[in-house]
Design goal:
- By secondary structure, this protein is mainly beta.
- It has helices spanning 3-6, 17-20; strands at residues 41-45, 50-59, 65-71, 76-82, 85-97, 103-108, 112-118, 122-125, 133-139, 145-150, 159-164, 169-172, 180-185, 191-195, 200-205, 209-212, 222-228, 234-239, 245-251, 255-258, 266-270, 276-279, 290-294, 297-300, 311-319, 325-331, 334-342, 347-352, 359-361, 367-374, 384-390, 399-403, 407-410, 416-417, 423-431, 436-444, 456-464.
- The chain is elongated.
- The two termini are 30 Å apart.
Length: 465
């Protein structure tokens, strides 16, 4: 349950402030941060449509997945998967989906046709105009779709496309010379892909059109942009003159730079926090590995799942803002799509007079509220800290917040915005309280945006008689 569902903006009775004031807070801001610490994931096999293979290509913020799977009869069909199971869409592959559950991809109809599908409306085909073949590769939450199309078998004439299904229109995005392909679109309708011969990564928008993302000053390298988030961070990979792969990230202020890690790698998706996922190579490669880039490190995702799971993760294809990852791996001799769900590692605890259970005290009893945070492998990640008290007074006089370093104040306010660090049984309140019922909350967000949307929280109740 999110913290904003438990308490929302209000103020407290000013005359009670003196009863809740805590003088000083001696926090240690030099905390250990082990960059090599691995997050931990639970892994879920998404199964197949009856055959021996399934491949995941994308995941949305609800944890639904789009991909392709072999059927019992040996056909390869697009699928949509959610907690109800895998749904067959049609002969082809599903390459992307948005947070509304709209899926896009390629259906082998009369020719290759770009499609949009959802549970309510079923299957629909995108306008191909004068093109004969079309593939949709990504869809934004606005409903705009990107991909590519070509006439006849003219590979060199392949053109990046932006579709607006609501208007039944398609817009060719141009090229940098030679064929162009679009693979992702963000909330600002910025599109990324690759174009030209040799290939160059591009970003496109309605104002400036198609722009080259630049190069890494290496001779003979080709560049491919695969995803973009709403912050405008682009990930992809370069293919070297010796046909090796190097993952990169591009940002407006910093330009293009390689992501960390030795050897070959491809970055295939990025979330809103700039965390990227990808692979060492394709899943066909015998030595393929699924990778996560986070906080300046590259992590082999095989090191983050239970050692006895039986999985060999070959590639990661999508990542949500809460860290859920879709990918593909080898299990029991078959390639299957899978979903990796983060195992909570941050432990928060708030106690009243040393108890996690509700306590009852008198007007003359001292109430001691202590908080503990153990960030484990999340140490050093940006975060918001909240320490708030709900009272029994009528709105708008019903909330207090502990604000570092001044102490308690009316309303719901940030206690602290700082990287996660270890805090052991720190006392935030040592005072008597007026008659009434109180609930004290400790909450920590897994981002630093100043909004109460905590991923980890705890509470304790106090009754004053």
């Amino acid at each position: 349950m999110k913290i904003k569902e438990k308490f929302y903006i209000a103020t407290h009775q000013k005359k009670q402030i003196c009863a809740l004031i805590v003088v000083g807070m001696l926090m240690l801001f030099s905390f250990p941060c082990d960059a090599a610490s691995f997050p931990q994931y639970a892994i879920l096999d998404l199964g197949t449509l009856g055959g021996e293979m399934s491949i995941a290509y994308g995941v949305n913020e609800q944890g639904a997945v789009a991909g392709k799977s072999e059927t019992r009869e040996g056909y390869v069909k697009a699928f949509y998967w959610d907690s109800w199971g895998m749904v067959e869409i049609g002969l082809g592959k599903a390459l992307g989906l948005n947070d509304l559950g709209r899926v896009v991809g390629n259906i082998h109809h009369h020719n290759d046709d770009a499609f949009v599908w959802d549970v309510v409306n079923g299957l629909g085909f995108l306008n191909k105009g004068d093109f004969l073949f079309a593939t949709a590769t990504g869809i934004g939450n606005s409903g705009k779709v990107v991909g590519y199309a070509r006439k006849f078998n003219d590979i060199d004439g392949t053109t990046a496309i932006l579709w607006d299904p609501s208007q039944d229109t398609l817009t060719p995005l141009g090229s940098l010379g030679g064929p162009s392909y679009a693979f992702a679109v963000n909330g600002m309708e910025e599109v990324v892909g690759n174009s030209g011969d040799p290939s160059r990564a591009f970003i496109w928008d309605h104002t400036d059109g198609m722009k080259d993302l630049g190069v890494l000053n290496e001779e003979g390298w080709r560049y491919y942009a695969t995803d973009i988030n709403d912050r405008g961070q682009v990930v992809g990979y370069a293919r070297t003159a010796s046909d090796e792969y190097r993952a990169f990230i591009w940002e407006r202020d910093l330009g293009m730079r390689l992501l960390p890690g030795d050897g070959e790698s491809l970055a295939l998706a990025v979330n809103g926090h700039g965390h990227a996922v990808g692979a060492q190579g394709t899943i066909i490669g015998l030595e393929g590995k699924a990778y996560l880039w986070r906080d300046g490190s590259r992590i082999d995702l095989n090191q983050t799942i239970p050692s006895d799971s039986g999985w060999e993760l070959r590639e990661a294809r999508g990542i949500t803002d809460d860290g859920t990852i879709c990918g593909n791996g080898l299990i029991n001799g078959e390639i299957h799509a899978c979903l990796l769900k983060p195992v909570p590692s941050v432990m928060v605890d708030i106690k009243a007079n040393g108890s996690d259970l509700p306590i009852t005290v008198s007007l003359t009893d001292i109430v001691s509220i202590t908080v503990t945070v153990d960030p484990s492998s999340e140490a050093g990640l940006p975060s918001d800290w909240w320490v708030v008290a709900e009272t029994g007074f009528a709105f708008p006089l019903d909330w207090y917040s502990y604000v570092y370093p001044t102490g308690w104040a009316p309303g719901i306010q940030l206690c602290l915005q700082a990287p996660l660090f270890f805090l052991t049984s720190f006392e935030v309140l040592h005072a008597t309280l007026p008659l009434g019922n109180y609930v004290f909350y400790l909450a920590v967000d897994h981002n630093a945006n100043g909004v109460p949307d905590a991923g980890w929280w705890d509470s304790v109740s106090v009754m004053v008689e």
